[in-house]
Amino acid sequence: MLKRMLTSFLLLVVALGAMAEGRAKYVFYFIGDGMGVNQVNGTETYLAALEGRIGITPLCFTQFPYSAFVTTFSGTNGVTDSAAAGTALATSQKTKNGALGMLADLQTPVNSVAVWAQQAGAAVGVTTSVSVDHATPAAFYAHQGGRGSYYAIGQDLVKAGFDFYAGSDFMQPTESAESAAPSLYEQCAQAGYTVCRGYKDYQRRNKKAGKVLLLQTEKASNVQRNSLPYAIDRKAEDLTLQQITRAAIHFLNKQQKDGFFLMVEGGKIDWACHSNDAATVFNEVIDMDKAIQVAYEFYEQHPDETLIVVTADHETGGIVLGRGPYELHTDLLRYQRMSVEAYGAHVKELHAKLGDQLTWQVMQNDLKENWGFGAGVTLSEKQQQRLQKAFEGMVSGQAEGKKTLYAKVDALADTARLLLAECALVGWQSGGHSNGFVPVFAVGAGAENFHGQIDNTEIPLKIAAAAQWSK
Q1: Of 22, 24, 50, 207, which residue has the fewest beta carbons closer than 10 angstroms?
Q2: What distance in Å separates the CA atoms of residue 30 and residue 443, rounded to the nearest whole number?
Q3: In this predicted model, what pLDDT tens digit does every residue of 209-243 receive, in sequence order?
Q4: Maximum CA pair distance of the chain?
């Protein structure tokens, strides 16, 4: 009872402050999955290193006038997973790891700030760089006890009826191979959604659309349906988070509703952290910042009515900037041309193509081109031996790859990643999540309420108060 009274009092105080500063009619909620404090600091340090200096080059969102540290523990664990953290960020409720939009009893559904916005008459968009039914986006519309119930989560997406969804694809578009139940694409069409495949398709078809589900092309999904490609691996035709954000703003803003709420997840920051792939991580943070810049352009047009909040669900990997010597050489990460996962696939193709002609000399030249070894990156004799041993294991078929949460990484590619990290003096604690603080940054109407140290459950309450949406 006392806790409820204190929460009500907090909401009243925050709401009065928001009313004094102006209401947030347009709300952007960016979530960098796995993006802890050091992921942000590391990216800015990397950008400065590319300019040839020690220090930082600020990202757009780190220059927002208000910020805070955020605690992320779940309702049942000291270290959260993305489902519980997403639920906290979406609904203001702690829950059990793995649960989406449900309390820890796995029986009681709880609505998200996206639903509060919808009920208040705002247009709503939920978007991501991974699948639309992944944990973070699903926390805003689904009510499931297990994050892996992809078909049921997809059905919840349709039931929620938000105006705009975007991501790579559905993980499980059909109930089963034997089921006669309609696919999720069919259910979306029946519910009035126009399914657009790629940004150009959206541009062609949005005018007549009542609601939109924006996915990558079917060709891209046939290669990898669970996410968009990493920024470091991107090809010109690939759908990007920047395009998704631009499309969402365009579509939501023309709905003639009472403003809008848009959640945008940079989902692959987490994936790269699970692989301990620093260069790919920093490029993913930069990529999300580009999407935030699109939102900031909108904010500059509507500064008194717009709120942008940028945060993370948890930290992943326990990244350390500096190991041993009091030095840091993130500039060396520039020599990495592709993600560790993509390089593993590249090596496999190279081996299949060349067979016995894939000699150590040929491999050295390839490593020089794609990792800078022997060019900008100098390896010790022992490091060179480790790399050659990994190559020999790959050729003989005796080397086992490394399994991460979202990928299996080739042993040679993983050794290259390890060696580049050693040279850059970037360390990792684990391949999982940690309980480290994550940051939150805010600008616009109600942004002043994001300061100090807060819990992740407070963020949706502060957003709702700024927008004057009832829980």
Answers
A1: 207
A2: 12
A3: 999 999 999 999 999 999 999 999 999 999 999 99
A4: 74
Q: Which of 151, 154, 143, 136 is nearest to 81 (CA)?
A: 136
Please state the pTM of the whole predicted model: 0.94
Paired tokens of 95: 């829950």
Give the residue among 243, 264, 277 at the shortest CA–CA distance from 311: 264
pLDDT digits (tens, 9 = 90+) for 40-96: 999 999 999 999 999 999 999 999 999 999 999 999 999 999 999 999 999 999 999
DSSP per-residue codes, 263-319: EEEETHHHHHHHTT-HHHHHHHHHHHHHHHHHHHHHHHHSTTTEEEEEE-S-EES--
If one counts every other C-beta atom within 10 angstroms of the C-beta of residue 30, the result is 25
**Can you name the residues that pair with 452 across neighbouring β-strands?**
68
C-beta separation of 102 from 94 below 8 A: no
What angle in degrees, to the nearest 10, is found between the helix axes of 37-50 and 278-301? 90
pLDDT at 166: 98
Q: What is the DSSP string of 435-449?
A: ---EEEEEEETTGGG
Instruction: Walk me through the domains of the chain, giving residue ranges and CATH numbers.
Output: 14-317+438-467 (3.40.720.10), 337-427 (no CATH)
